[in-house]
Amino acid sequence: MSAKPPISSDAAEPPKAVLSALKKLLRPLVRLLLSFQITLPYLIELLKRTYVEVADEDFKLDNKKQTDTRISLLTGVHRKDTRRLRNSDTQDCVAESNTSIGAQLVARWISKAEYLDAEGNPKRLPFKSEQPGDADFETLVASVCKQDIRARVVLDEWQRVGMATLVDGHWVELNKKAFIADTSLDEKAFFLGMNLTDHLEAASQNLRSNKPPFVERCVYYDGLTDEAIQELKQLAEAQGMAMLEALNKRALELQALQANESNVQDSNTNPSQRMNLGFYFFHELTSEKTDEHL
């Protein structure tokens, strides 16, 4: 189903509220770009390609072939550039790493019963168990990677970035607080792209659509002391992680249930959807005091 521009063609300019929100959104993005020496000309070329791709894929007319002229009209990208970009091979600026595999492995380790101790915490796993059928690190890796990536390769990388420790040359111990290690730019960039994309998709669809909204909530206060910020930050981390771990455990259970259903008749139960839930906590100095919002 093709998307339709929400603003009529006779509108003089986009809504001021949207432009104001866009300006706020761009400031941290531009700060990030400048930090990595991504200049305006480079960004403009990337924007041109993205405008053309989105218009080409998401703003098609029913039963009509998408043309360079229409895409140029929609996007404002020159027709010559539109033709060039549509005919060139699409290449990501940064190749995706194996971060998604690491996230899947951690999700299983902190949720599946065979990898948990009596208190529900992830167990220290033998790299390779001497007893067939017992849980070990090799089995964990194989459950996600099949035969594509060896367990030793995963462990070496996790040790490098601080996600796991090898104890006594045999036991693998997970560092739960290092899901995204500070030393791994690729991992942080991967989650930046995935999480902010999904958050922005939810927020923008809520703005453009009259359908039931995606969940998007926040708690905002100012006029707080450093001590109050630290207390709230610790509370957010503890309760947020508890929520994510509970949701992760239930999602794995639901996946397992669906995998066991061999005959799926109802399209609503077809396992073709994905979800993403995250949370963040941000604080900074404020120059003005405003009313608290919830």
TrEMBL record:
InterPro entries registered for this protein in UniProt: DUF6502
Pfam families documented for this protein: DUF6502 (PF20112)
Highest taxon of source: Bacteria
Full protein name: DUF6502 family protein
